[in-house]
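FAQ

Q: What does a record look like?
A: Structure on top, sequence underneath. For example:
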């Protein structure tokens, strides 16, 4: 035992004749009884402090307390069942949803984060394509198309197709991409 532990005992901290009789976990208060049988409640959330006289003891705290009983343990009946606490209207408190109700905001945040990751990573947004010049036609690449096929189907040459589409890589055409195809009678020149 430490040197100053006697200062943490009820005999030292409480007035003479006052005894701790219970603990209400719902509001975090200790209850005390003096020699005359008057009941006092302590401050919320602390073990010791200013005691306030109350008219009656809460029903979750037993009326008679043994010296060796655990004050912070829930009171039980002889058959082992715990007494349910009462609310301010005198009805028994019955939690609906239990632990899932308290975990719902956590799961909601996780779901929103996963949806954002899915949206940003797995479904990248397409950038609007640059409009084709007025002397060209717009063509959507189909599966199996090559730059050579697209140019010859539109009566153009591969060189003209590459001049009009400088950023298109003919080796990596993706179906659904848009390519600008030169008009058949158009003259295109490149300036270097």
């Amino acid at each position: 035992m430490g040197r100053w532990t006697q200062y943490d005992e009820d005999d030292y901290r409480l007035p003479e004749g006052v005894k701790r009789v219970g603990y209400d976990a719902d509001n975090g208060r200790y209850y005390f009884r003096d020699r005359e049988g008057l009941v006092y409640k302590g401050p919320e959330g602390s073990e010791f402090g200013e005691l306030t006289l109350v008219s009656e003891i809460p029903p979750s705290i037993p009326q008679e307390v043994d010296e060796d009983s655990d004050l912070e343990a829930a009171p039980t009946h002889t058959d082992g069942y715990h007494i349910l606490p009462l609310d301010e209207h005198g009805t028994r408190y019955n939690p609906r949803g239990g632990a899932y109700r308290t975990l719902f905001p956590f799961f909601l945040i996780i779901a929103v984060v996963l949806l954002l990751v899915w949206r940003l990573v797995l479904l990248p947004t397409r950038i609007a394509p640059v409009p084709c010049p007025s002397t060209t036609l717009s063509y959507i690449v189909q599966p199996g198309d090559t730059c050579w096929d697209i140019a010859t189907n539109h009566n153009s040459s591969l060189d003209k197709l590459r001049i009009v589409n400088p950023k298109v890589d003919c080796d990596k055409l993706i179906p659904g991409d848009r390519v600008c195809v030169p008009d058949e009678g158009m003259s295109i020149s490149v300036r270097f």
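Q: Is there anything notable about this one?
A: The first helix runs from residue 10 to 13.
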